Amino acid sequence: MTRINLACAAVWFASFALAGCNGSGGNAGREGSAQEVATVTGSVTYLQRTALPPEAEVRVVLEDVSLQDVPAVTLAADTVLAQGKQVPVPFSISYHPGQVDETHTYSLRAEIWIGGERRFTSMEAFPVITRGAPDHADITVMALEKPRATMLVGTYWKLLSVGGMNALPAADARREPHLTLLEEDHRAVATGGCNQMSGTYQMSDQGLTFSPFVSTRMACPGVMEQEGALGRAFSATRGYRIQDDTLELTDETGAVLARFVAATQEDD
């Protein structure tokens, strides 16, 4: 009889302990349910008649924009890889309702990045969630000018090196070696330190090429090798790279032919 009572007591104790664990778990479940996520959905599009390349990234950010003159606070974000998708590109941002203050204002901001460059951005606010705003927004982004194209044309580029040689400084009364691409008629003007060179250039998203340059025919001892190397570099140019204030002309393999730095144009 004693053994049966002890066994019953053991079962009763185990059941009590299990009930206690279940009770604790139930509270945890109720706390977890309070942390369920909500979503903001929508789409991103643009008006330009151009295809979205496969490597494009559509980035949408949910922000708290309540305070003026203070940077917005990011609550959540979504990045959609194009991978063949075309606009409008759908998005869905998940956030925790506990992060939201009903007295605050929340808005969406969208950007499209291509090849590591921000090429499109939203120009207006798209309120969501609070103050009667919806949980859905269809966002139209606007195209941005390419910084590198704007920087390339119209900048005075001072020669740093060409053909593996550092540029020689200007001697006597000669102009320093340089290159300038003019917007007018796509003209390119340059000098290797002696003769004036001119031609035209052609640009695309993928490259840069020059027409054959015409040149004056002065003989300038000491810089003719440099000038010849610069002329050959222009003939072989198929592309370019700009990083900060440095321009590199490259051949069809991507090898650097000549390197320049943005500078202040000399007075004639």
Structure commentary:
With 268 residues, the chain is α+β, with helices and mostly antiparallel strands. 19% of the residues lie in helices and 39% in strands. It contains three helices and 19 strands. It has helices spanning 2-33, 147-152, 224-236, and strands at residues 38-45, 57-64, 73-81, 89-95, 106-114, 117-121, 126-128, 136-140, 142-143, 156-162, 165-166, 178-181, 187-191, 196-203, 208-210, 214-215, 239-243, 246-250, 256-262. Strands 10, 11, 12, 13, 14, 15, 16, 17, 18 and 19 form a ten-stranded antiparallel β-sheet that branches. Strands 2, 3, 5, 6, 7 and 9 form a six-stranded antiparallel β-sheet that branches. Strands 4-1-8 form a three-stranded mixed β-sheet, with no helix packed on it. Strand 5 and strand 6 form a beta hairpin. It is elongated. Mean pLDDT is 83; it is low at 1-34.
Low-pLDDT segments, ≥5 res: 1-34
Shape: elongated
Give the termini separation: 117 Å
Profile the largest sheet.
Answer: 10 strands, antiparallel
Measured on Cα atoms, how large is the radius of gyration?
32 Å
Listing every helix as H and every strand as E from the N terminus to the C terminus, the arrangement reads HEEEEEEEEEHEEEEEEEHEEE
Q: If you average the pLDDT, what whole number results?
A: 83
Number of strands: 19
| Alpha-beta content class | alpha+beta
Q: Residue share in helices?
A: 10-25%
The fraction of residues assigned to DSSP E strands is: 35-45%
Number of helices: 3
